[in-house]
Write a structure and sequence with these properties.
Elements: E1 20-24, E2 31-36, H1 40-59, H2 61-78, H3 80-91, H4 95-120, E3 124-125, E4 137-144, E5 147-151, H5 157-170, E6 174-178, H6 185-196, E7 204-206, H7 211-218, E8 223-227, H8 230-243, E9 247-250, E10 256-259, H9 265-277, E11 289-293, H10 294-309, H11 330-345, E12 349-352, E13 356-357, E14 375-376, E15 379-382, H12 389-392, E16 399-405, H13 408-415, E17 420-421, E18 423-427, H14 431-438, E19 445-448, E20 465-466, E21 469-470, H15 477-480, E22 483-490, H16 507-521
Parallel strand pairs: 5-6, 5-8, 6-7, 8-9, 10-11, 10-18, 11-16, 15-16, 18-19
Antiparallel strand pairs: 1-2, 3-4, 4-22, 9-21, 12-15, 13-14, 17-20
The structure holds NADPH dihydro-nicotinamide-adenine-dinucleotide phosphate.
């Protein structure tokens, strides 16, 4: 594990009031660094500097910006070990969770946006059937909004905070990132890396601080990209509305999995286990609840229980040391415990796990050195229903409630009985049937015989339905949202001195025009 001295401590030269936030390693309880708690004045100063730096960055053009982003891609891979250590230290997640879902994502994303920004933001030639613009050149153009604010959560400090900055930068904006106060060190490390890669000063800045720093950021920027809870997302949307700036919101979820009786049960059980426990269940798009058709319910539950029982939980000590790491955010442990207690109170049975683990001494299974760390046993719950919080509210922990359903119809109804709609998965050997069920689930993404793999497809939009968000990341929309659209219409130099509809109004001309409209638009039938 990284020593305190090896972790990024420096801040990017911002003057601040002197308040510091201690950053803790959730797997050990050790304080691993401090960062400034920046107030509104410091954020305003950063915004001034970001705005001043932006035009020159825009002037780099796609090629110039891509060069810097591709250098950053290489930097991430060259420094992967250091970045993983930093992520593990501030989140308590396993080395595999940091490597696969964070380094793997960022490595891909830097290259993806460097390559695709010119294509997604190229001028679009538009053809119009409108008679009045015949012979004119019509274009849709995208130009960077200017200064983008990105506010991130603690569960993926690289993927969900820095990740959203990459397309904003590729489009030619300056960016200020406000990472979660719990996990700010990864963002600071990446800022250091981007400087090394030649990103001009002040184009990417990190505003460390608490919620108030995030609120101050919204007051300064031209657009806000937020990832976090639905509760805070609403506040962000309100603050953005008051300023009339666009907001893109990636919020909470309660992703359902549906297992049909013809599913490959071994595959379904492996996916249920992995995607409910991966990152200790602290992933927005995941498997948070399972609905299994009655004929295969017992077998599925037995398989999942065996697999979950075999998982080791504890402080990560390198690759291969544990499968389930720490609970990153202290209050999250209370939520997980409350959801499990509520389920038990209402008649659920715990087949595996069901307890918090505060140290290796009181039950961490197989993992070493959980001294002072915060963990929760990988947990399987059955006999659950929708009166229980574990089935309706976001638990965000290593728990999997499994519910027996009579048939696919009941599964779809229950899957949609949720305020959220982030992701979903359906398992069936009949892929056509699986797809038709997937299409009926109210979610931003639905995978058949897989789960949340859509997040790795950067060509596809990723966003939530219902209370899971507004807007999306990835795909063309994932970079165009950081731009303003401008419509351009160019009339060639050889044009009439005036158009026939202009002054003075004459009866003959006006009648002719009215007749023309009838000819053009009035030939259809009235049913
Ligand atoms: P929060 O909503 O608590 O915080 C998110 C960020 O917003 C943090 O940086 C936080 O700062 C900041 N913040 C808090 N209050 C304000 C405010 N009034 N104005 C502006 N910013 C503010 O979320 P968590 O960090 O707890 O993240 C977990 C949540 O994120 C889960 O619900 C999860 O589902 C969701 N999520 C969604 C994803 C998606 O893509 N849809 C991906 C990952 C997570 P501070 O931490 O300092 O309080």
């Amino acid at each position: 594990m990284a020593t305190v001295e090896q972790l990024p401590q420096a801040h990017n030269g911002v003057v601040h009031s002197g308040e510091e936030i201690a950053v803790e390693n959730p797997a050990t309880g050790q304080t691993i660094g401090t960062v400034p708690d920046l107030g509104a004045e410091a954020v305003a100063d950063m915004a001034r500097r970001g705005r001043a730096a932006q035009p020159a960055w825009e002037a780099y053009g796609f090629e110039g910006r891509a060069r810097v982003l591709l250098r950053a891609q290489k930097w991430v891979m060259d420094n992967a070990e250091r970045i993983v250590e930093t992520i593990v230290s501030e989140t308590g997640k396993t080395y595999e969770d940091a490597s696969l879902a964070e380094i793997g994502y960022a490595g891909n994303a830097f290259g993806f946006w460097a390559k695709h920004a010119p294509e997604y933001l190229a001028d679009e030639r538009v053809r119009s059937s409108q008679l009045l613009v015949k012979g004119k050149r019509i274009l849709l153009r995208y130009s960077p909004l200017g200064l983008i604010g990105v506010i991130g959560p603690w569960n993926y400090p690289l993927t969900n905070s820095v990740g959203d900055c990459i397309p904003a930068l590729a489009a030619g904006n300056s960016v200020i990132l406000k990472p979660s106060e719990i996990t700010p060190l990864t963002s600071l490390l990446i800022a250091e890396g981007l400087r090394e890669c030649g990103l001009p000063e002040d184009v990417f800045q990190v505003a460390t601080g608490r919620g108030q720093t995030g609120a101050a950021l919204i007051e300064e920027v031209d657009m806000i990209m937020f990832t976090g809870s639905t509760k805070t997302g609403r506040k962000v949307a309100q603050a953005a509305a008051a300023r009339l700036i666009p907001a893109s919101l990636e919020l909470g979820g309660k992703d359902p999995m549906i297992v049909l009786s013809d599913a490959d049960l071994e595959r379904a059980a492996n996916f249920a286990t992995y995607y409910s426990m991966q990152n200790a269940g602290q992933t927005c798009i995941s498997i948070e609840r399972a609905y299994v058709e009655a004929p295969v319910y017992d077998e599925f539950v037995a398989k999942v229980s065996d697999k979950v029982r075999a998982l080791r939980v504890g402080a990560p000590r390198g690759f291969g040391s544990v499968e389930v790491g720490a609970i990153t955010f202290p209050p999250q442990l209370d939520t997980i415990e409350a959801h499990v207690a509520d389920a038990i109170d209402k008649g659920a049975r715990v087949l595996v796990g069901g307890h918090a683990v505060q140290s290796a001494g009181d039950g961490a299974r197989g993992g070493e050195g959980a001294e002072g760390g915060r963990f929760y046993e990988p947990t399987v719950l059955v006999d659950v229903d929708h009166t229980m919080k574990c089935m309706t509210e976001e638990t965000f922990g290593p728990t999997l409630p499994i519910m027996k359903v009579a048939d696919a119809e009941e599964a779809v109804r229950l899957a949609n009985d949720s305020p959220y709609g982030l992701g979903a998965s359906v398992f069936s050997r009949d892929t056509a049937r699986g797809e038709s069920i997937a299409r009926r689930i109210e979610a931003g993404a639905a995978n058949v015989n897989d789960a949340l793999i859509n997040i790795m497809v950067l060509e596809l939009p990723m966003g939530g339905a219902k209370a899971s968000g507004l807007g999306s990341r990835h795909g063309a929309g994932g970079i165009r949202k950081y731009c303003s659209q401008q419509a351009i219409v160019v009339t060639p130099k050889l044009a009439l001195k005036k158009e026939p509809f202009m002054y003075p109004y004459r009866q003959r001309n006006s009648r002719m025009l009215a007749g023309l409209f009838k000819l053009l638009y009035g030939r259809g039938k009235r049913d």
